[in-house]
Amino acid sequence: MSLLAAAVFGSCTKKTVTPGPGTGVVGFTQTEVTMQETDGLTYIPIAVTGEPGGYPVTLKITAEGAENVNDVLLITSTDPYSSTTTLYIGEDANNTVNLQVAPAWRPDDNADYTITLTITDATGAAIGTASTCTIYIKNVQAVQYGQYTISGGQGSTPATWSMMISEGANGTYLMSNIFDSTETPVLVGEFNPETMELTFDGRINGKGTTNYFASTPYNNEILEEGQYMKYWLIQGGGNDGQEPVVFTVNDQYQISGTASTMVAVSMIYASDGQGGYLPTEDGTTYLGIMTGNTTATYEGEGIEDEYPFKKK
């Protein structure tokens, strides 16, 4: 009876077999990648040549080159809080897999980094000579966040006002509190370290791209007849108001001035109940006009609680 039980037990137990490499060889198809810290998601392909010894081919990747790699480079194809990742290549994957990485935006860290990715273990294929990929991450100098006082040129109204510059997504900058108003839309800009210019090109935070700057409603719902909706018209320079606003940046990475023109107008429209809106009497408010030759002075880091805008 005991022998019979042993035979039955043995027949029901499936032995785990680790596949051999076969003729498969795995490696990076790109062994060097250069990126800026503000770049987004990047795909680094890994491929198996030859015939794997079995599927799935399992790979273990390690990352080295910084005290905490995840402060510099996020490996997003697995747990982003680990510097070690496991990848699987299935039979229907054409023997390839993409390792997904994204550099971390580090406005307070001005160093360049070199991160080395290494295939340290593989099952189902042998590790080839292209077992490492070197990622060079270039630092991007950051414009100083905080509050600025703008002193307007001839004809500017008001003559002096403040605004806030804060951090946006993927290395962008947010300009808010325009003409001392916490209600204005938040504009999105980018810094060019070669020209030392911070340019706001018409994008509005959380509301997509506008026709510089175009009219932007606070919501897209159809209101009942007689209800009101507020629009903002943020206009740039040029005859059509579609030139961007460009601020110069000094060697302290602070905004120092601009020759651009910017106009902010608040407009109240009444709904006709069918998706159309008509301007109301006395519903237009000119918040401010900034002409060229204005100067900007850095006042220090602002207290975000004082400004009710939210980053999106």
Q: Could you walk me through the main structural features you see in this protein, from its secondary elements to its overall organization?
A:
The chain is mainly beta. Helix content is 4%, strand content 46%. It has one helix and 22 strands. The protein has one helix at residues 2-12, and strands at residues 25-28, 32-36, 42-49, 57-64, 73-75, 84-89, 96-103, 113-123, 126-127, 132-138, 146-151, 160-167, 173-176, 187-192, 197-204, 215-217, 228-235, 245-249, 255-258, 262-271, 277-290, 294-300. The strands form four sheets. An eight-stranded antiparallel beta barrel has the order 11-12-13-14-15-18-19-22. A hairpin with a 5-residue loop joins strand 20 (262-271) and strand 21 (277-290). The longest helix has 11 residues, at 2-12. The protein is elongated, with a radius of gyration of 28 Å. 29% of the residues are buried. The model is unreliable at 3-9, 207-219 and 303-312 (pLDDT under 50).
Query: How much helix, percentage-wise, in residues?
Result: under 10%
Strands of the biggest beta sheet: in what spatial order? 11-12-13-14-15-18-19-22
Describe the main β-sheet briefly.
Answer: 8 strands, antiparallel, barrel
Low-pLDDT sequence parts: 3-9, 207-219, 303-312
Q: What string, H for helix and E for strand, traces the elements in order?
A: HEEEEEEEEEEEEEEEEEEEEEE
What's the end-to-end separation, in Å? 71 Å
Structural class: mainly beta
Radius of gyration over C-alpha positions, nearest whole angstrom: 28 Å
**What is the overall pLDDT average?**
80
User: Count of helices?
Assistant: 1
Global shape: elongated
Q: Got a strand count?
A: 22
In terms of DSSP E residues, the strand content is: over 45%
